[in-house]
Amino acid sequence: PVTKAAGGPLHGKHILITAGPTHEAIDPVRYIANRSSGKQGYAIAEALRDRGARVTLVSGPTSLTPPEGITTVPVQSALDMQAACTAALPADVAICVAAVADWRVAATESQKIKKQTGDLPVLELTENPDILKMLAQADLGRPELVVGFAAETENVAAHAQAKLKRKGCDWIVANDVTARDGESVMGGDHNQVTLLTPDGAEDWNRAPKEQVAARLADKIIEYFKKS
Ligand code: CTP
Ligand code: CA
């Protein structure tokens, strides 16, 4: 249910969220993508909306319904996502939850690539822009609080700490994407995260994605209370 949020603790804050995968076209029928359902990003968007924030959700292709009371901007590729994020600024907070494809095909074919006997197609890749890094290192109009996610399978805390530095963001939500009880994090309903902030690292218990979202939203409220 959508709570009437006028006057909520995040009233007056604009929060930009990226969610879902990106699709990088190979040709009109094929693409490169990452595994991501969008569930965690959408849950964060809803939790922040429920606390009074104005939310812009820049979403790659997912099977989820655009949430009520949120400006959802649907995009396909990383380049689209970057443009939509730039257009959505200024924002007080940016949270990059999207599983952005690290590479795209250098030259998308305008016609479907046909199978040829013998020859395998070779795809030349080029690197996509890093949207989190761009937001975190913006000279002008940097959101006050920039939060990234780091999906890791091992050495979660160490990898996430390195990522925080490299990206220049303020917080990192590191998630251990190792499957638990037969349920994968990617596409699953639960998440196990470590929150890294300048105050240190907090390990949160494995919980439904809605609960992780609520906890992160409450952390953001706390942050603005202190500042
Ligand atoms: N991210 C982004 N744009 C990209 C790649 C990543 O905005 N082109 C963001 C993700 O949304 C996430 C964070 O950066 O918040 C970390 O993404 P991740 O894939 O874990 O980091 P990478 O720097 O791409 O490192 P790697 O995939 O090699 O672990
Ligand atoms: Ca990546």
From TrEMBL:
Keywords: Decarboxylase, Flavoprotein, FMN, Ligase, Lyase, Magnesium, Metal-binding, Multifunctional enzyme
Cofactor(s) it depends on: Mg(2+); FMN
One biological process term in Gene Ontology: pantothenate catabolic process
Location of region: Phosphopantothenate--cysteine ligase: 15-227
Known catalytic reactions: (R)-4'-phosphopantothenate + L-cysteine + CTP = N-[(R)-4-phosphopantothenoyl]-L-cysteine + CMP + diphosphate + H(+); N-[(R)-4-phosphopantothenoyl]-L-cysteine + H(+) = (R)-4'-phosphopantetheine + CO2
This enzyme's EC code(s): 4.1.1.36, 6.3.2.5
Binding site residues for CTP: D102, K112, P129, D130, I131, L132, F149, K163, K167
GO CC annotations on file: phosphopantothenoylcysteine decarboxylase complex
Domain annotation DNA/pantothenate metabolism flavoprotein C-terminal: ranges: 10-222
Any one Gene Ontology molecular-function term assigned to this protein's record: phosphopantothenoylcysteine decarboxylase activity
UniProt key word Magnesium: yes
Domain of life: Bacteria
Coiled-coil positions: none
Note accompanying the cofactor annotation: Binds 1 FMN per subunit.
Pathways per UniProt: Cofactor biosynthesis; coenzyme A biosynthesis; CoA from (R)-pantothenate: step 3/5; Cofactor biosynthesis; coenzyme A biosynthesis; CoA from (R)-pantothenate: step 2/5
Family the UniProt entry places it in: In the C-terminal section; belongs to the PPC synthetase family. In the N-terminal section; belongs to the HFCD (homo-oligomeric flavin containing Cys decarboxylase) superfamily.
Functional note: Catalyzes two sequential steps in the biosynthesis of coenzyme A. In the first step cysteine is conjugated to 4'-phosphopantothenate to form 4-phosphopantothenoylcysteine. In the second step the latter compound is decarboxylated to form 4'-phosphopantotheine.
Descriptive protein name: Coenzyme A biosynthesis bifunctional protein CoaBC
Organism phylogeny: Bacteria, Pseudomonadati, Pseudomonadota, Alphaproteobacteria, Emcibacterales
Part of the whole protein covered: 192 to 418 of 418
